[in-house]
Every structure is written in C-alpha cells, then in structure tokens.
Amino acid sequence: MDKFIHSVKLDKDACTGCINCIKYCPTQAIRVHGGKASIKPQFCVDCGRCIRYCPHHAKIAESDSLDEMHNYKYTVALPAPSLYAQFNNLTNVDIVLNALLSMGFDDVFEVSAAAELVSEMTRSYIEEHRDEAPFISSACPTIVRIIRVRFPTLIPRLLPIRPPVEIAAQIARKLAMEKTGLPSSDIGIFFISPCPSKVTYAKAPLGIEKSQIDKVLAIKDVYPVLLSHMTHDESKLRPLSTSGRIGIGWSNSGGEAAGLITDNYLAADGIMNVLRVLSDLEDEKFHGLLFVELNACNGGCVGGPLTVENPYVATAKTKRLHRYLPVSGTHMEACPDVDYLWEEYVEYEPVFRLGSNFRESFEMMGMVEDLTEQLPGLDCGSCGAPTCRALAEDIVRGEASRNDCIYEFIAFIQSLSGDLSYMTTEMEASGRIGPEDLQNLQHSIGKLALELRRKDV
Amino acid sequence: MSECLTFEYQVSGDDFTRAGEASSDVKNKLKMMGVDSGVIRRVAIAMYEGEINMVIHADGGSIKVLVSDDNIRLILADTGPGIPDVEKAMQQGYSTAPEEVRSLGFGAGMGLPNMKKFSDNMQIDTEVGVGTTVTMDIHL
C-alpha cells in the first residue's frame, strides 16, 4: 500500500487555477502549475482545509458510494457519533439507528459504543504508563499523519490504542460472523464518516497492518437518504443504542478527554491551533499533562468536511441529545474480545527534508536561503507556490524555475528587451547585419518564446 | 566542510505573543536539513529559553544561529541590564523576573540552568549596564 495515499482530491474541471487553496494548506502541499492545482501526496495529511476554502469546490473528498452495499451478503453500518448531531430535535439515538436498518443495512454498531471501550482502555493504559505521559490521542488520523511527517520527537507520545471506529469494525465483524456463519469476505463493514481522513485510514491505517473497515460512506451522502427513513414514533423503535454521554461526546472537541476523568488534559481543535500545540509540546512547554486531545477539524469531528451541520450548532445538539444519558453504557466485559493496542509503531517520514543526506540538505538549505533573499518577498502566490520561500524550496528541489515568479519574469523580459535594443542599435550604427547578428537575434527570440511557452501564455 | 549557514533573528522586547517564533523557525529549517531530532529538540528548548530571557529582562535582542557540519552555535546578544552575579543566576529557581511576568507563568528561575543543560557548551559574556551575550554550542 502506498504510504502517502490520501483522500482529498482535485476536480480538474472545476479548478480555475486561482491560488486560494495554496494559501490555506497547513503543510504547503498544494501548487498551481499550468492553470491547475495539484496536491503533493507526501505532504498532504487529509485535513480537508482546502475543501472548505476552495471557492470553486474543486477540492473533493473521496468516499465510497452507497451502491457498495449491494456487493456484500450482510452489511453492518458503523455510524460516527457526529452523525447524531446532524439532525434537528433528535431526542433518541435509536431513531437514527433504526433508520439505518430501514434504509438497508442488516445491522448497526455504534462507533460511540466502541469509543467508550477505548476510553476505558485509555484510562488503564495511562494509569500503567504515567511516567511516559503526556499521551497524544491517536483517534484523528490527520493528527497521526502530521506527527509522522513533522514532529518525529512526538511519535513516542502517540497513544498506541486503535481508534474507536477500528474497535467498532472488529467487534461488528466478529458479531456478524457469529450470527450469520458467513465468511468474513461476505460481510461489509460500512463506516459513516464525517471526514476524508478516515477514508484514508480505512485504506492505509497507521499503527496496524490492515483495517477491518470495508467501505467509508460520507455523512453528507447518507444524511438525505436517512431522513426519509426516520420515524419519530418511539414506540416502534427497536432498542439498539448502548452508548452513554462519554461515547456520544467523542464527536466534540474535548469529548475524548472528558472520557478519561482527569483534569490534567489539553484539548485543541482546528489544524492551525493543533500545529501550534504540537510545536509547543515538542519544546516541552507544558508540564504535568497526562493527555492531549487533538482534532484537525474545528469543534472536533462534528466539524468534519463531510458533515452537513455547522460544527458549533452540532456541538449544541450533541449536548442536548446526551444530557439525560448515563455516563457510559458500553463496557469491555460485555463485548467480544478484540485487540485494542497498535501492532506496529509509526515511523518518521522526513518528507520535508531537502536532500538525501545532511551534506546535500545543508547545501540546498544555503541555496534556499539565498534565493529567498533574492525573491520579492511578497508571497503573492502567482508562481503557484504559497510563499516566496516555498518557491525557493521548489526551485532548489528542481520542481520550479525562477521565472515562475512573475516579478522575476518581468525582470527577465526587461533584460532581454535591453539586449535586443542594444543589438539593433549596434546593427544600425554599423549599417550591416552579419550572420552572427542574426544568430544572436534568433537566440534571444528563442529564449523569449521558450519562457512564454513554459508559462503557458 | 568548513562553511557554515547563518540564520539571524531579531527578538522584540516585552512581546510575549511573538516569543518562540525564532526557535520555531529554526526548528523547521533544521528538520528540512535532516538534523537529528534529538539535537533539534535541544536547540529548540535552549533557544526558546534564551528568547524568553531576552523578552523578560533585556527588552529584546538578536539571535544568530550558525550551523556547520558538526556543530550548531546559538549566539543570543542583547543590550539589556547585564547579569550582576552570573553564578547566582545559574542556580535553579533563582529569578529576578518581575512579579507581572511570574504571574504569566514565566520567571521560574529555570531559563539559564535549562540553557546549560540542553547545550554541550555555554558561555556568558555580560557587563552590567551594557548587555549580555550567551553563546551555546550543541554538537551534531
């Protein structure tokens, strides 16, 4: 499996080549060349920020089609807790779970139920490893991915516990196989997800070899279908939900930490805030923390790019929904045995390193510094790179040229026009045009044509 | 390899919102150069402590980071009040930071001791009323 697979993609037809996205990408993964944006796969961490900011909706999140349900003999839906927060006046989670059955799934297993198991596991893990604290939550795949490429010293701080959706998938598969006697390949485990990051996770998880999730559906795709299947006559509902406040609260920033029953935690949300926290954690600016909960999306998972509702409204709805629920409704001893811990450690991927060794990187950094100094420093983005420094890095990496900078290009045209003007004045003065003069003229015009072609003018 | 890369920063005084910008920038550059992450961590912590010291005590100053193939040298220079008793200033927990700074959580008297702890070699040149230059080496 490709290490740098990602689920945020570009719709080339919708892309106008404007430079909004390059400015918003927190890892500077996007470039605009030849009038179209492109994403550098090794830099992209699937945070989805470009999806929100692209005014032309040219950034799309890949997810699976609802039709995939027909490709399995038995299907289980795993609703993310953020799904519940999409509906107005929802008083009972069972309304959503019954609607999932009514729309065609054979069974449901709540990710919020698994989240309570993960909370339970995390409490005991932290208790046993207090001297290695603070632990950073590994539930948001974007956080794990950004730490993998940007914060090598924080890799050992990642909580080595599988995310709730994975635990839910493992339990759901086990229960389905026991119930139906079908082989694993006939059972389809469908996660209903708030974000593309989980789509990537299902295909290429970090921390484990292979995920038990088969397909990932977008909340925004399931939502309209689900609406028509929802009945508010509670007497007709099969009681299915087992989650309490802790599990359902996981969809909001601070929800995971709340499940740990400690005050020694920090919770940050929104990728830019998260980056600042990670940088400060790296410098050991906080002391005495046990747990750090980080969510790439504003407000937590309810802010995912595949959700329908405004994240802050969704947060308010979550609070209303779980107000009268028990603290926790799902417990490990009542669930089938599954593996909770990671199988493998996440390895540092130094994708931002300039050269292949220190010596080479050192020299390239020197060139980047010099070039950055020479570029105009306006960070206008016209070259297709987010900053002048990023362009300098691209040039040194051999992925761009100096004339991609519009100001450098104007200077180039000016110098060429100066050369031409000098040549013609000389010719006029001498009263003759020799073969050498012609060659020089052709050479200059050729240079101009080449640069214009490269710029796609 | 005798040449050396130099990164320079100005630290403004009394502006806590910007403290840490320089160490954060250096950290990113060192990562792009593939410097060992343990070394980067030490550089970042030592430099951040120095940056904060300049903000609290010296109304800012300048930082030079010199990277060669076997060493990273941090030179933090200010024209602040100077340190009257270096030995005392090096003691853990000793601080002359004003009360309003301490109430922000700074001034715990760990700045210089941490800078010494995280560098391989540290030298303080100071003169009361003239300023202080702290030079730290962290070997690669």
From TrEMBL, chain A:
Residues 6-35, 36-64 form the 4Fe-4S ferredoxin-type domain. Keywords: 4Fe-4S, Iron, Iron-sulfur, Metal-binding. It comes from the Bacteria. InterPro entries: 4Fe-4S_dom (IPR007202), 4Fe4S_Fe-S-bd (IPR017896), 4Fe4S_Fe_S_CS (IPR017900), 4Fe4S_Ferredoxin_RnfB (IPR050395), Fe_hydrogenase (IPR009016), Fe_hydrogenase_lsu_C (IPR004108). Residues 363-422 form the 4Fe-4S domain. One of its GO terms (molecular function) is metal ion binding. PANTHER family: ION-TRANSLOCATING OXIDOREDUCTASE COMPLEX SUBUNIT B. This is 4Fe-4S dicluster domain-containing protein. It comes from Lachnoclostridium phocaeense.
TrEMBL record, chain B:
One of its GO terms (molecular function) is ATP binding. Keywords: ATP-binding, Nucleotide-binding. Signal peptide: none annotated. Residues 53-138 form the Histidine kinase/HSP90-like ATPase domain. Pfam families: HATPase_c. This is ATP-binding protein. It comes from Claveliimonas monacensis.
